[in-house]
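Q: How do we represent a protein-ligand complex in a form that can be generated token by token?
A: Start from the inputs.
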Amino acid sequence: MRRVKTFFIAGAGTDVGKTYVTAALARALLRTGRTVGVFKPVASGYDPARPEESDAGRLLGALGRPLTPDNVAAICPLRFAAPLSPPAAARREGVTLSLESIAGLCEAEIRAAETDILLVEGVGGLMSPLTDDATGLDLMLRLKAPSVLVGGTYLGAISHLLTAAEVLKSRGLEIAVVVISESPPPAPDFEETIADIGRFLPGLPLYAAGRVDDWRADALAGRLVGA
Ligand SMILES: Nc1ncnc2c1ncn2[C@@H]1O[C@H](COP(=O)(O)OP(=O)(O)O)[C@@H](O)[C@H]1O
Ligand SMILES: [Mg+2]
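Then emit the structure tokens for the protein with magnesium ion bound:
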């Protein structure tokens, strides 16, 4: 069986730009001629009236696939309305999430993937609750895929990023690359923040995603294709 090259897109925090980076990366990988799949096992804050604004909608857009209910469900099988952590949002709909079933969905996706590369976007920050007794880190430990660690540049972002990197390292999980996605103003200087982060993470490939309309992730894609 051919095993798809899988990367887990992990966030140093919530709203740091995981979907933005995943979408840009998917588009860049497609430009290299690779086939790409994306998966977002769980999403909260999902508004069925505006699927185009959801992570699944944005990821489908990046793949150039139509925004149909079936495609949304295939990319993001567990969707909840409340803009809360997944277990809190699920609770409001009478659903109890389990690591076993979420990991099972991801493993089935990886097994069935017929693409060259599969990008799995995590939920929230690295240790955001995923179920009542598991965090996103527990899912990463199950999947053991190398990660694309995404951080922001808001004041305090460096600590969040270094903490996340330290936790991944201490748990034996590989960080393939770090991507810094520029936070909206007010935020400290972007270039200066990137340089500061680089000094604290020697040896890790670092990519900067500036706040431009269409950040091209070609260099990052090239790195992952060669990884
Ligand atoms: N580098 C960037 N340039 C422009 N917009 C960005 C960038 N990073 C994030 N955003 C925007 O910020 C918001 C939060 O990013 P998103 O990718 O949804 O974060 P996450 O998936 O980590 O929750 C989105 O509206 C997204 O388009
Ligand atoms: Mg997202």
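The radius of gyration is 16 Å. The pocket of magnesium ion (ligand 2) is lined by residues 18-19, 55, 121 (CB under 6 Å).
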